[in-house]
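Appendix B. Chain record.
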Amino acid sequence: MNSTVRLTGVTKRYRGVAALDGVDLGLDPGITGLLGPNGAGKTTMLRVMATVLRPDDGDVQLLGHDPTDPRARTEIRRRLGYQPQELGFPRGFSAFAFVNYMAVLKEWTQRDARTTEVRRALDLVGLGDVATKRISRLSGGQRRRVALAQALLGSPDLLVLDEPTTGLDPEQRASLRGVLADIAASSTMVISTHQTEDVAALCSRVVVLDAGRVHFDGSVPDLVALAAGKVWLAPAPDPTSLASWRMASGRHRNVGEHVPPGAELVEPSLEDAYLLLRGTRDRSAGASTEVAS
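Structure tokens predicted for this chain:
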């Protein structure tokens, strides 16, 4: 079976700097979490998947189509839901009016069917009771959910979501996880986020992107396993650790490659593994720079 998304050697540059650098990636049905620091190229990758950007080099296949072909791109967009990191809202629109406007753009021409679908999408994200309220009067978290509602119109085959849980409280995030998990049973979803707990709770697969390149691609348990035996508690920060912080108990949680003898090891989390991967990569890059200089 062909992947829903297939990127082959995809490169995108801005002013000569590669935001994506020869990325090879295939996405299948289910939820893939995309992790990486600011500036890693995550948003650029999502915009390529959403047909907003065309790469400078490489090949992109989405839902079995080539998005460089205008007719194919139209067909992709009919089956695509995209929530960008920032979405501008027209002045004076209510939540319902905005999602309805987006439904018109997505070719929902039958008014009754469109109204039913708009209400369904708003209910999914918990905004049915504020549908007639102006977006300018909604909270930041509610505006994020309006942006998500328009992406869910028509139960798309491919969902591309950039920071969908930003600004949501814990209860709202937990509720949204349930909604996204149900949708992913019949679609391909990629979520870019800084919330490692969302990835751990939702995603069957995680991709770590840094400096425009994929540095890990596998299951969440496989990434967590990289930190096994490399997380320990101590009375103070360990100077050899890659990351360390003081916990509520007063003890320090340390993550690193060089574990002192007799250290009190603890079970690693996805965040620990991500920090270890990032820290190891940074030190390797620093060492390479020193050798080159």
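Further analysis of this model is presented in Appendix C.
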